[in-house]
Amino acid sequence: MSGSIRLLLGDEVIELSGFDPQLTVLEWLRTSQRRTGTKEGCAEGDCGACTVVVGELHQGSVQYRAFNACILLLATLDGKQLITVEHLAADRLHPVQQAMVDCHASQCGFCTPGFVMSLFSFYHDEKRGQPPERDEIDRHLAGNLCRCTGYVPIVNATRRALAGPAADSFHMNRDRTARILAEIQPGSGLHIERGDERFFAPRSTDELGRLLGEYPDAVMVAGATDVGLWMTKQLRRFSTLIYTGKVAELQALETRGDEACLEIGAAVTYSDAFDALTGQYPDLAPMMNRLGALQVRNAGTIGGNIANGSPIGDMPPALIALQTKLVLSSSGGGREIDLEDFFIEYGKQDLHRGEFVEKIRLPFPRPGLQFRIYKLSKRFDQDISAVCGAFAIILEKGRVDHIRISYGGMAGVPARAKNSEKAVLGEPWSEETVRRAQAAMADDFQPLTDWRASREYRLLSAQNLLWRFFLETTGHQSVSLQVVNL
Question: How many angstroms separate the CA atoms of 99 and 121, rounded?
């Protein structure tokens, strides 16, 4: 394994070794490189003040995406390009910077570099409209917070800067950049070590299995959207980190017609999986667009969200409702289990020592399947759910032939409401039946009260989400929801 990384900092190739395995890009930029345009606001990937853009080779070209530098590990940039706000202006301001000036889109200025970098990545998004629609703008800027402007000038600047196709120096030099990135791609795994701490980036599942066999207590990291906070907020240190983002098999995303499923490698990011997932299940799109912000979805992985075992992760309830399976692997072999069986209790998953999540198998929609997922949170964008409910049903002549009801935020793990399912299975899909299922839900869950929601709110909300699902799948116009005081 190599003991150093090479990256393209702007247009300069640099090689680094012997650095802290837990060093973040934000800390490195501000302390070592003296590039202080990248700001620290929250240190948890929430405010966007630290936004940088990372360029990666994708099908022979360079793909630019925004990331939160505060939770982005420097060691993960091996073979990539890092662009900060200092790189944008040469002899004149970049178009997105000029638009921010022209539209008076900065006041105190602290958040401005982060907005500029998010706009820069949006500027280079080949899928964007010209000019972009307001919902596109909101999606791309949801991860950047501003206390001063009210966002209207920033939206106006976005429209002005992105009125036409990309035509900056990065666009003109994209072929040269792609050649340089191709030249600095790592040919082997990475091993950074300093003192008693180490960072590994294996290139295959065989290497990953061997490393977990040697370091069974290692912390696995993909997008660091959780592990990064353990470092920045809890100030935790880890003796061994194993990065999954370079494992070829874990990057695979394949439509398997022979097995009628979508197969998603555990290190595939939400952004990369979005089109494939929503192509099979369009109702996933609204929830996935609210799952973190774009910077988080560019880094976070579905496999990491599952392996973390959080009871309030938004993806597991949907995947459980859709009968998803997991493939788990180790140096000793592999096995396949139902996703719902992976979650045992809070903080405990069915993952043997030295074992890792390799892939997720999501079945194609069955004929007649109706699916919905609803997310309740205090803030619409970029917030953790108080309750997340997912529902899948097949009706046969008005009766429930198949149903799965799954929730996050209602128990110590994502879980199905099996008593509620039992109350409706084989019965007419009617108001009377659904009311029985709502009542049975009290036997399914004993939710906690915390700062996100009270126990009473969670239970009543979960019951009402089932009622909403009933209304949407039957075309009923009348709505009768209960109300609870928070």
Answer: 15
| pTM, 2 dp | 0.94
Q: Give bridge partners of residue 329 from the DSSP assignment.
A: 334, 356
The answer to whether the beta carbons of residues 265 and 250 sit under 8 Å apart is yes
Distance CA 213, CA 190 (A): 17
The span from the CA of 409 to the CA of 338, in Å, is 20
Say how many residues make up the chain.
486
Domain map (residue ranges) of the chain: 4-183, 252-474
**How many other C-beta atoms are found inside a 10 Å radius of the C-beta of residue 182?**
11
CA atoms of 404 and 436, how far apart (whole Å):
16
Strand arrangement, sheet containing 399-408: 370-376, 387-396, 399-408, 415-416
Q: What region does 118 belong to: left with phi over 0, alpha with psi -120 to 50, or beta?
A: alpha
Q: What is the token pair recorded at 3?
A: 């003991």
Nearest to 106 by CA among 124, 119, 123: 119
Task: Residue 104: name the closest of 139, 70, 152 by CA.
Answer: 152
- Does the domain at 4-183 match CATH 3.10.20.30? Answer given as yes
Residue 94 clears pLDDT 70, i.e. is over it? yes
Torsion of CA 436, 287, 377, 384, to 10 degrees: 120
The set of residues, in sequence order, having a beta carbon less than 8 Å from that of 485 and lying 6+ positions away, is: none
Q: Does domain 252-474 have CATH number 3.50.7.10?
A: no
User: Which of 202, 216, 188, 247 is closest to 332 using CA atoms?
Assistant: 216
Query: Up-side HSE of residue 239: CA atoms within 13 Å toward CB?
Result: 6
CA gap 179, 7 in Å, rounded: 13
For 336-365, letters b (16+ CB in 10 Å) and e give: eeebbebbeeeeebebeebbbbbbbbbbeb
Pair 451, 383: CB distance under 8 Å: no
Structure token digits, residue 16: 């680094």
Judged against a pLDDT cut of 80, whether residue 480 lies above it is answered with no
pLDDT at residue 481, as a whole number: 47
* The predicted structure's pLDDT at residue 178: 97
The C-alpha atoms of residue 198 and residue 429 are separated, in whole angstroms, by 56
- The amino acid that residue 484 corresponds to is V
d(CA 138, CA 148) in angstroms, rounded, equals 17
Nearest one of 327, 356, 334 to 256, comparing CA atoms:
327
Question: H helices then E strands: how many in the chain?
Answer: 18, 20
Cα torsion 144, 149, 150, 154: sign: negative
> For residue range 203-236, what is the model confidence (pLDDT) as tens digits?
999 999 999 999 999 999 999 999 999 999 999 9
